[in-house]
UniProtKB/TrEMBL annotation:
Its main location: Golgi. One of its GO terms (cellular component) is trans-Golgi network. PANTHER family: PROTEIN SYS1 HOMOLOG, SYS1. This is Protein SYS1 homolog. It is found in: Golgi apparatus membrane. GO terms for biological process: Golgi to endosome transport; Golgi to plasma membrane protein transport; protein localization to Golgi apparatus. The gene is LOC104595235.
């Protein structure tokens, strides 16, 4: 991991975005399966992409909210290992949530629920800030230098 001159590599950026998006949805699916799957008779994409399922008025809605926030926490860890730069955390986090917004618009229309916006805005903030904090901690670690004595 060298931090010299940054070379613009669009293939790397696109592959990082795709990998992060897939890991985000895998984590969301796993947490939905654990938290929501026990409460409903049949899981579907409605819980992923329909803004009406993000509601604070039911226990199932709280489980969906918790799943989204757990996925944001996991996303910060994914950013730590895939992106490795604190400067890029906000960019990649925002990209994940913008793609999610477009998928929600295609699936169920424009999200008109304030709860949807609050949960996804909080998820974006958690992912970006925690990812940046983790990356900064890694970048500021001391570099171990071993000194060998020469036998001259």
């Amino acid at each position: 991991m060298f931090y010299g001159a940054i070379v613009w590599d669009p293939l790397l950026i696109v592959s990082q975005i795709l990998c992060l998006q897939c890991l985000y949805y895998l984590t969301l699916g796993l947490s939905m399966f654990i938290l929501v799957g026990t409460r409903v008779s049949r899981m579907s994409l409605v819980y992923f992409f329909d803004y009406a399922t993000l509601t604070a008025s039911t226990v199932t809605g709280w489980c969906v909210i918790t799943s989204f926030l757990l996925s944001a926490l996991a996303g910060a860890c994914y950013i730590l290992y895939l992106i490795e730069r604190a400067k890029k955390c906000l960019d990649f986090s925002a990209t994940i949530y913008i793609i999610h917004l477009f998928m929600c618009i295609v699936y169920g229309g424009w999200p008109s629920s304030i709860t949807w916006w609050v949960v996804n805005g909080t998820g974006l903030a958690v992912m970006a800030l925690l990812g940046e904090w983790l990356c900064i901690r890694r970048e500021l670690r001391e570099i171990p230098i071993t000194r060998y004595r020469s036998n001259v």
